[in-house]
Amino acid sequence: MAARKRKTEEIPETFASYEEAGEFWDTHDSADYLKHMTPVEVDARLRERRFEIEIDSDVVAALRKRANSRHVPASRLANDLLRKQLLVG
Q1: For residue range 36-50, what is the model confidence (pLDDT) as tens digits?
Q2: Residue 21: inside a domain, yes or no?
Q3: pTM value?
Q4: Concatenated DSSP letters for 7-32?
Q5: SS3 49
Q6: 82 inside domain
């Protein structure tokens, strides 16, 4: 059985808004438009590593509450608290 070639809709020359472009790509597969894409070289250097750890929900709630009261992101407060406890203490 021969493979059927799918007919793809043309990509509009312009989109009226980012939302319109999003709607187009939400309903179209970019793999169908490879001939329209231009390869680019990317030099991606990660400057920092991030880690994910499990924290109990009551601890997260307390962390967020304290971070909000200090007007800092919860991640920054968590780093500061852990650094103080583990590296200095």
Answers
A1: 889 999 998 888 888
A2: no
A3: 0.48
A4: P-PPPPS--SSHHHHHHHHHSS-GGG
A5: coil
A6: yes
